[in-house]
Amino acid sequence: MTEVSIETLTKHYGASLAVNGISVKIAKGEFISLLGPSGCGKTTTLKMIAGFEDATSGAIRFDGQDVVHVPAEKRDIGMVFQNYALFPHMTVAQNLAFGLEMRRRPKREIAERTARVLDMVQLSGYADRYPRQLSGGQQQRVALARALVIEPRILLLDEPLANLDAKLREEMRVFIRDLQKRVGITTVYVTHDQAEAMTMSDRVVVMFGGQIAQYGPPADIYDRPASLEVAQFVGQVNILSGRLLSTEVNDISVIDTALGTARIGNMPRSADGAVTLVLRPEAVELFPESAGQTGVSATITASYYSGSLIDYRLALDSGDIINVQTFPRSRFSPGDRVTVKVDGDRFWALGAAA
Amino acid sequence: MSLRAKSLKPFALIAPAVLLLGVFLVLPYINIVVMSLRNPGSGTPYAPGFTLSNYLRLFADSFYLEQTANTLMIGFITTFACLLLGFPVAWQLAKTQMRFRGLAYGLVLSPLLVGIVIRSYGWTILLGNNGMINRTLISFGLIDRPLGLMYNSLGIVIALVHVFLPFMILPLMSALQGIDPSIEAAARSLGAGRVTAFRRIILPLAMPGIQAGCILVFVLSLSAYVTPSLIGGLRVKTMAVSVVDALVDTFQWPFGSAMALMLSLTGAMMVLLFARLTRMKWKAN
Amino acid sequence: MFRHLLTSYCLMIYAFLLLPILVVVGASFNAGAFLTFPPQGLSFRWYVVFFHNEVFLSAIKTSLWVAAVSTVISSIIGTMAAIFYVQHAGRWKESIRLAMLLPLLLPEVLTAISLLFFVYSIGMGTRTIAAMIIGHCLITLPFVFINVSAAMESYDPAWSLAAKSLGAGPLTRFRRIMLPLIKPGVIGGCLFAFIISFDTFTISFMLKNVGTATLPIQLYDYLRTNFTPEAAAVSTVSIVLTLFVVVLSEKLLGLRIHRF
Asked: Between chain B and chain C, how many beta carbons pairs sit less than 8 Å apart?
């Protein structure tokens, strides 16, 4: 169980800046994800933590000790690669034993620990198979086992689920997270898939262009995004402009929008009273116009049915276009007239303090 | 370790090769160019001072001009023969299935397992007036007198074709393998007959292989030594043979160098010419 | 119809390729004293003569020894260069490839002559066998390079990184991860190198020192003036030796390939 602290870590590749002075503190046993589009610097950061890339400046501390000048093979890390990187010429057991051999553990101990970890990943009995004889999911688990059997200070995963099909990916998400909780190891997980980051992490680090855009628990990232970029990257979002009407007690601002009145706390002051708000598609309720509900009128322009949910595109009478996501309780078709209802607290203003 | 030192470490891997090639290949080649400009010595390999006389001698003496022409002709004919004879084989081998491919490569390469001296020796047994070919043809009554296959350019060409055929087949095979089989089918579906499909689709796509094979065989034939020496004997000498003679038998190092360099230069010029011609021609098509 | 024509044509060409070799082997069993084929009666007499011929026997020994030494040197230099080429070359890749293939692209005669002059000019001369071995290293290097770099192209650098993350230092990574996985390429390269060195004539001829001769040189010398089938016997033995080396490494290589 290691505490990791990254302090103003920077990486230059010649003239370009891949990672720009980022700082993150990871608590013992915490699972954090580095989330962002390709090129945002998340993989470079992971490589620097692992020791495969040298930092241009900054510190990386494992339990307070700066490891920036320590070679990778001495950092005591466990790494899971995107393509698993299992040694093709060794059996599963030999792959697992390798790290322990490097640590000069006695044969008996190696056999014991290997068997135990194989059991943990539910692959007992596969010890003598070769990687090429295993399915993608099985190779993934062996890669995980190989990283864990050495009981490293920190577990690093580089988009490990990218090469698996959708169903397997969902299963493995749960599997990895459960395993990590059981073992209690500090984990850094790199992904561009926001669903993965959200479902697995204690905290998410959203990165754009080499810098941290936001760092916090998944709910914070989702419900209270720090910027438009973050809001758009993590899930779907509607962007609305609003006008400040009044301020109430507890510093709650009342804002007029095309979708009704929004109530937001701790909002930044703007000179002309204009505000940009974001609203998640699932925060909207739809009723048929005939039901007589109070709300804003709109016309359905498109609908996309995906089984558990339906996405609608609506044109408000005011002209704005919004996206809505609902359960298929009531199904609307393009051309239907509906009433849109939004709870005032569901809006979020960019720049507001969480 | 400092960042500088770390990024320099990989160079240690390539250093020995660079050293070996630099010292024992590049320097000697520079040296031989210098050597070709030295004054010929009498009693010693070379004398002090520099001159262009070695090169002039090559151009002035008709013997050497003829020899150059003859050597070039042998090169051209060998290359052309290898292309004609080798193309169908490459075609056939390229069509073999994946699992027999290793075997196919092995088949083509296996004659190369046997040393050049031995193979040329085999040809001396075959080509002589009393050799196997003539005796067989005479005993079958196909000819009355032995065909002159030995101690002349024809014999040299036959033996060289044998030696270098694999070097033509391999690049051809490689290029033909790279052609997507559905392309020919597409051409046929659009109405092209077999010959047209071959001429307008296969041939242009195989062109890199043809070029590679021809250049390789041509360059190899020009500089072949053992085969022309054993088969041409004292009567017909290619330039490579003359060069070695000049050096080993008569110790004329500067002249031999000039000859060797002229041979290589001429060869290189022919190759460039060939590359020009073939590339331009197919571009126009 | 066309297919069958093509197949028979290919068989003919293949027969053409094998012809001189078969002729030599056949002629070696000639009971008579002349190089005729078909042989006039079969006999092993020329093999007996050969086995008593010190000159040829020592030539074979020399060839084997020179081949072994140059193969070892080339394979070390060539393997290192191939690893660099695939993993660290960057924008120099094309140039390095060209440089490594130079001894193959340049005429062997020219290389031999240049090297001869050079060793004399630096005082080394051909007093020792060093010059010939250097020459052999030069011409075998491209073959090692081609084979090992081909094997390296299918080597995933992530394997080295994984080993690194598990605590393995550079030498351990090479010994336990990289080498086993590129072994077929290395062995293939060594095989090519050995055979090329064993059979090469021109380089050996120009750079030999007094008193030593490789088998091709000895054979060539002999062929200029002698016409008995003894040369055929020697050649056949040489062919058998080469085949033996190939089969031996096929056994070694074959096992390795099926490992993974």
From this structure: 221
